[in-house]
């Protein structure tokens, strides 16, 4: 009875083995974490202990089953070693084995279920922003480590200074370097709780310098990460736009340098079906290239279909800047947008493109008469 269901579920998991997460896994993570939280709330758990336990065991069974199926699938495709050493494989193994291993080692059941909090790690490989953060941390590791060294130097120097200045007047608080070290960390991170403060004039001067240094250190970390994220975002956008530009036949004759030039000028627009792009009578300040999808141009007495590789909206940039027709998508489309200023720069740099666009504009003008 259950064999066909298990077989179908195994085929589904195997088919999605290359993905980071499935919808079922997201549901299992959410239900499992909620059940683990309810397990720690006495009144809530006592109202329905069997349901909470059943949900936890069901989620664990799903993660174990998913992990086994993925191992089997990767072994068949000869990628088992790669999977087991990957972050996704390690996370899957932790999600499946953490609680059972704790139970085998004799950990009490309710305590062992606390390890189900590790299931949240299964969400990490599927978040693009976290992968981007990992790349930023790797690329900016040098500057980040340098700032960390500065942080540690300030903490240690401040703790020794406060120990020397405050040990006689506050022996319980600053009676040792480790105690002063805790004060220095709390102060440098600007999270001081107020019950440990220097009382000597020199001690307060050192504390002021530590607080100012803390603002500078965390400002440097923030600036490094923000700059790294901005660079990674520009890189990703450039690669996506490059891929779209290279697929447009209109730019096929351009060399790599020219395509890179065009890519810097274009911006990508993703639109669903039946979306109005251009409205007749409005002022035009950009033209569009169709990287994927199709649009419909509503001309007087007829409608013209434009598909992948075509462009539109150039009429308003070559002469009268008033839009002469309504244009809307007929299906999900990806458009490349070229603004007026960039249009003029591009035409000046690439006269052959200017001639092609001008010839197409004249042809459409004759057709529309």
Automatic annotation (TrEMBL):
One Pfam annotation reads: Ion_trans
Q: Does the keyword Membrane apply?
A: yes
Q: How does it sit in the membrane?
A: Multi-pass membrane protein
MF annotations from Gene Ontology: cAMP binding; voltage-gated potassium channel activity
Every copy of the Cyclic nucleotide-binding domain together lies at 250-364
Cellular localisation: Cell membrane
Q: Which residues cross the membrane?
A: 24-45, 51-69, 81-105, 111-130, 142-165, 177-194, 206-228
> Coiled-coil region(s) at which residues?
none
Q: What are the record keywords, sorted?
A: cAMP, cAMP-binding, Cell membrane, Ion channel, Ion transport, Ligand-gated ion channel, Membrane, Nucleotide-binding, Potassium, Potassium channel, Potassium transport, Transmembrane, Transmembrane helix, Transport
Query: Per its UniProt record, what InterPro entries does this chain match?
Result: cNMP-bd_CS, cNMP-bd_dom, cNMP-bd_dom_sf, Ion_trans_dom, RmlC-like_jellyroll, VG_K_chnl
Q: Which GO terms describe its biological process?
A: action potential; potassium ion transmembrane transport
Q: Has keyword Translocase?
A: no
Provide the Gene Ontology terms for cellular component: membrane; voltage-gated potassium channel complex
Q: What does this protein do?
A: Cyclic nucleotide-regulated potassium channel activated by cAMP.
| Quaternary structure annotation from Swiss-Prot or TrEMBL | Homotetramer.
Q: In which family does this protein belong, per the annotation?
A: Belongs to the potassium channel family.
Protein's UniProt name: pH-gated potassium channel KcsA
The species this protein was found in = Bradyrhizobium diazoefficiens (strain JCM 10833 / BCRC 13528 / IAM 13628 / NBRC 14792 / USDA 110)
């Amino acid at each position: 009875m259950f064999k066909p269901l298990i077989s179908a579920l195994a085929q589904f998991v195997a088919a999605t083995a290359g993905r980071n997460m499935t919808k079922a896994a997201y549901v299992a993570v959410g239900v499992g974490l909620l059940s683990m939280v309810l397990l720690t709330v006495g009144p809530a758990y006592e109202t329905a202990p069997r349901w909470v336990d059943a949900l936890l065991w069901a989620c664990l069974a799903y993660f174990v089953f998913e992990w086994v199926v993925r191992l089997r699938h990767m072994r068949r495709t000869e990628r088992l070693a790669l999977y087991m050493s990957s972050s996704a494989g390690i996370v899957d193994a932790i999600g499946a084995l953490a609680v059972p291993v704790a139970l085998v080692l004799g950990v009490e059941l309710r305590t062992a279920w606390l390890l189900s909090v590790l299931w949240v790690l299964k969400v990490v490989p599927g978040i693009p922003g976290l992968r981007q953060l990992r790349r930023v941390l790797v690329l900016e590791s040098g500057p980040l480590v340098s700032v960390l060294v500065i942080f540690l130097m300030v903490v240690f120097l401040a703790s020794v200074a406060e120990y020397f200045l405050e040990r006689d007047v506050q022996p319980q608080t600053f009676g040792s370097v480790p105690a002063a070290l805790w004060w220095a960390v709390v102060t440098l991170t600007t999270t001081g709780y107020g019950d440990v403060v220097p009382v000597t004039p020199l001690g307060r001067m050192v504390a002021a310098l530590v607080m100012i240094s803390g603002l500078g250190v965390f400002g440097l970390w923030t600036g490094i990460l923000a700059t790294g994220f901005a660079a990674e975002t520009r890189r990703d956008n450039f690669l996506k736009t490059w891929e779209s530009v290279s697929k447009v036949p209109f730019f096929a004759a351009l060399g790599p340098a020219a395509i890179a030039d065009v890519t810097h000028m274009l911006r990508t627009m993703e639109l669903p079906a039946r979306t109005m792009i251009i409205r007749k009578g409005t002022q035009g300040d950009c033209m569009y290239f169709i990287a994927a999808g199709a649009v419909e141009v509503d001309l007087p007495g007829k409608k013209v279909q434009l598909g992948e590789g075509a462009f539109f909206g150039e009429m308003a940039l070559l002469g009268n800047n008033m839009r002469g027709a309504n244009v809307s998508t007929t299906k999900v489309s990806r458009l490349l947008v070229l603004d007026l200023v960039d249009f003029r720069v591009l035409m000046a740099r690439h006269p052959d493109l200017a001639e092609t666009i001008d010839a197409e504009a004249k042809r459409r003008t004759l057709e529309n008469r």
